[in-house]
Amino acid sequence: MARKGALRLIQGVRDGRSLSDQSGSLRALPVAEQARAARLAAETLRHQGRADVVIDAFVNRRPAPQIADVLRLAVVEMLELGAPAHGVVGAAVDLTRTLGARGQAAAGMVNAVLRKAGAYQGWADLAPQPLPEWLRGPLVEAYGDAVMTAIEAAHQRGAPLDLTMKPGADPVPGADALPTGSWRLQGPAQVTALPGFDEGQWWVQDAAAALPARLLAPQPGERIADLCAAPGGKTLQLAAAGAHVTAVDISEQRLRRVTENLARCGLTADLVAADVLDWRPDVAPDAILLDAPCSATGTIRRHPDLPFIRDGHGIAELIELQTTLLDHALSVLRPGGRLVYATCSLIPDEGEVQIDEVLVRHPGLIVERPDLSRIDLPGIDPAWITEEGGLRLRPDYWADRGGMDGFYMVCLRKPG
Ligand SMILES: C[S@@+](CC[C@H](N)C(=O)[O-])C[C@H]1O[C@@H](n2cnc3c(N)ncnc32)[C@H](O)[C@@H]1O
């Protein structure tokens, strides 16, 4: 059941739909099988390049797309996830037979290929799935070949589960403290079953994603606008620090997640469903966190489908939107106030370059470099600080601890 569900998810990705957008398509399966199908599909995409090397070693020509995906699923299940070959091969042959006349004809080939693939030596040494050229090109230019290889290796390793604790909450048993203040659980976990979930003691948030709110240093009683706020990880941090938070997002549906998260954690914020570009508060905020919409190319560890469903189109429009959002946010900020701009992107045009340009457009605007002596901003590696004074985080950082999402963030101060 889970394998058939995983194959359906992968085919959805081939048609351009993300895995998360398809989660409803598994509703007919028991919950545990839904989770298994989702994991199988994600791991198959994550390791597709390596699976193809193995398959190519045993076929004369690449099979039809659907059959190739059945083979990839089985290869990844055997060689990456360690499932016993006999069960996987039998299930893959059965799955192939359900794929119409082409499947019936291919069942023998699938059986023969997978029997050999199960005994493949050298899986661990195969190069990770490369990023598509539209993304790889700009990233090699920005970071160089060696870093690109390290980033691809980090994508292959996937992501652990990071938690941000409410101040004073007890850590989740088995979680490790990270230098920057987040907590990390290695290995898969059912989030809602973890201790402290129902009590709202913590929320799921990648260690890198937790840093923009820390960089902003929210103070009790400050008026802070969280712009582009949903699903609300940063809103929760700002509210937990005692700030009066207004969370603005264009998507009412996504704002419902913010409402749920606030309620679970016993925190409050004013929620506004609006386009930030139309939003003008009556009282200018003391501080703003602008987590702008972006290519999300820093989150591929957790979204291995992203390279398959994007082709680089739309990034120029996103960059233009980020510029407009940044200018608008600065226009509503109180004089002397601070603004943290953040994107979960690896592309410098969505980070460092935006800041180079905003400083030219807004004379008097300054960058507040991260202060490494601040006790509420622990664990910042000086190597993360960029020339203009922002923080560039990459998936290959903290490789021995399980990596982090790619992110860019910077704290700006508006002239008084
Ligand atoms: C990167 S996500 C924000 C993540 C969020 N800050 C968090 O920490 O959970 C970007 C958000 O921007 C919102 N968005 C995109 N364009 C917007 C606009 N013009 N005005 C307001 N929100 C917008 C999207 O709906 C999406 O929820």
UniProtKB/TrEMBL annotation:
<dbReference type="GO" id="GO:0001510">
    <property type="term" value="P:RNA methylation"/>
</dbReference>
<feature type="binding site">
    <location>
        <position position="275"/>
    </location>
    <ligand>
        <name>S-adenosyl-L-methionine</name>
    </ligand>
</feature>
<keyword id="KW-0489">Methyltransferase</keyword>
<keyword id="KW-0694">RNA-binding</keyword>
<feature type="binding site">
    <location>
        <position position="249"/>
    </location>
    <ligand>
        <name>S-adenosyl-L-methionine</name>
    </ligand>
</feature>
<dbReference type="InterPro" id="IPR001678">
    <property type="entry name" value="MeTrfase_RsmB-F_NOP2_dom"/>
</dbReference>
<dbReference type="InterPro" id="IPR035926">
    <property type="entry name" value="NusB-like_sf"/>
</dbReference>
<dbReference type="GO" id="GO:0003723">
    <property type="term" value="F:RNA binding"/>
</dbReference>
<keyword id="KW-0808">Transferase</keyword>
<feature type="binding site">
    <location>
        <begin position="228"/>
        <end position="234"/>
    </location>
    <ligand>
        <name>S-adenosyl-L-methionine</name>
    </ligand>
</feature>
<dbReference type="InterPro" id="IPR023267">
    <property type="entry name" value="RCMT"/>
</dbReference>
<dbReference type="InterPro" id="IPR029063">
    <property type="entry name" value="SAM-dependent_MTases_sf"/>
</dbReference>
<dbReference type="GO" id="GO:0008173">
    <property type="term" value="F:RNA methyltransferase activity"/>
</dbReference>
<comment type="similarity">
    <text>Belongs to the class I-like SAM-binding methyltransferase superfamily. RsmB/NOP family.</text>
</comment>
<dbReference type="InterPro" id="IPR049560">
    <property type="entry name" value="MeTrfase_RsmB-F_NOP2_cat"/>
</dbReference>
<keyword id="KW-0949">S-adenosyl-L-methionine</keyword>
<feature type="active site" description="Nucleophile">
    <location>
        <position position="344"/>
    </location>
</feature>
<feature type="domain" description="SAM-dependent MTase RsmB/NOP-type">
    <location>
        <begin position="123"/>
        <end position="415"/>
    </location>
</feature>
<dbReference type="Pfam" id="PF01029">
    <property type="entry name" value="NusB"/>
</dbReference>
<dbReference type="Pfam" id="PF01189">
    <property type="entry name" value="Methyltr_RsmB-F"/>
</dbReference>
<protein>
    <submittedName>
        <fullName>Methyltransferase domain-containing protein</fullName>
    </submittedName>
</protein>
<feature type="binding site">
    <location>
        <position position="291"/>
    </location>
    <ligand>
        <name>S-adenosyl-L-methionine</name>
    </ligand>
</feature>
<dbReference type="GO" id="GO:0006355">
    <property type="term" value="P:regulation of DNA-templated transcription"/>
</dbReference>
<dbReference type="InterPro" id="IPR006027">
    <property type="entry name" value="NusB_RsmB_TIM44"/>
</dbReference>
